[in-house]
Amino acid sequence: MIQHERAESRAGWMFITPALVLIGVFFVIPVLGALVLSFTDFDIYSIGNPADTRFIGLGNYRSLFADPLFWKALRNTAYYVVVGGPLSVVVSLAAALLVNARLIRWKPLFRSAFFAPWVTTLVAVALVWRYLYHPQYGLLNALLGLVGVGPIDWLGNPHWAMPAIILMSVWKNFGYNMLIFLAGLQTIPPQLYEAAELDGAGQWQRFRQVTVPMLGPTFVFVGVVTMIAAFQIFSEPYVMTQGGPLKSTLTLVLFMYEQGFRWWRLGFAAAVAVVLGLLTLAGTAVQLRLRRGGERVV
Q1: Considering the domain boundaries, does residue 202 fall inside one?
Q2: What digits encode the pLDDT tens for the residues 232-246?
Q3: Which domain holds residue 153?
Q4: Minimal CA–CA distance to 234: which of 126, 130, 158, 157?
Q5: Is the Cβ–Cβ distance between 213 and 298 less than 8 Å?
Q6: Segment 39-71, tens digit of pLDDT
Q7: Which of 50, 68, 86, 96 would be a feasible disulfide site paired with 181, CB 3.0-4.6 Å?
Q8: What separation in angstroms does the CA of 202 have from each of 193, 197, 210?
Q9: CB–CB of 123/235 below 8 Å?
Q10: Could you tell me which of 223, 224, 256 has the C-alpha nearest to residue 77?
Q11: What is the count of structural domains for the chain?
């Protein structure tokens, strides 16, 4: 019996070893490398002669927290996470409820149509939306003109640039979360809805008392994945606004990219990456803690 268990254990390790090697090479080592670089003055000149790299301790972090652009990028990223993340979840859930409704016909067609933006190249989508937002020839301003609203410089106005990017991002990404919610909805036993209807529960009460609690694990997964993706937003502001007017769409990842690959302050950029990673871990922990607290209340 013991030999059989050891044989199974060895077989298990043989199967997972390739995956562990890949994780170590492409995740663990880069993370540790970024952490080490964040305590040095590593720059473009150090690439040719690594021996010139100096250990500066917390110097990069002190410079980072004293940089106004960092705080601007942090505020913009927090704005995107707080507004764009929940909005994406709500739109995804609404689309899943619509596709899952009994009265809806051609459900595969709607699923494919809603999921299509997710599989479309992000740069191509951003370029198309740039033309939609054009202040003179954009379709969005043309539609607003039909109701008497003057043209808006969506990407050139610091007050509208980030909401415009959030709108595009929600349209681009809601299809994936919609499929996750749809899978969760299809696992809810129909007997629960029938019992709630017999007890006199209306449609809103059935949604609040049956659908939402049964989708609890799905909400946790979608919320965490959406929040992590929101912290990592880069392509949308990079392609559409290059940071935007008055840096209104400068995000932490875009700030890290500019510092590392425009100004070649690689040690400083590594410090930004470490701070971003810690913020993402903290946000994930808060979401999980709130979810556990909600389960205790229920």
Answers
A1: yes
A2: 999 889 988 888 888
A3: 68-297
A4: 126
A5: yes
A6: 999 887 777 777 778 899 999 999 999 999 999
A7: 96
A8: 10, 7, 11
A9: yes
A10: 256
A11: 1
Instruction: Name 281's Cβ contacts closer than 8 Å, sequence gap at least 6.
Output: none
Contacts of 143 (CB under 8 A, 6+ apart): none
Tokens 């301790």 correspond to what residue?
Answer: 57
Q: CATH number for the domain including 229?
A: 1.10.3720.10
pTM for this entry? 0.88
Residue (of 236, 238, 218) closest to 291 by Cα position = 218
Closest by CA to 140, choosing from 123, 116, 160, is: 160
Task: Please state the separation of Cα 141 from the chain's center in Å.
Answer: 28
Tens of pLDDT along 117-173?
A: 998 888 888 888 988 998 888 889 999 888 888 888 899 899 999 999 999 999 999
The answer to whether position 60 is within a domain reads no
With 0-12 CB in 10 A as exposed, 13-18 as middle and 19+ as buried, what is 60? buried
112 in the Ramachandran plot: left (φ > 0), alpha (ψ -120 to 50) or beta?
Answer: alpha
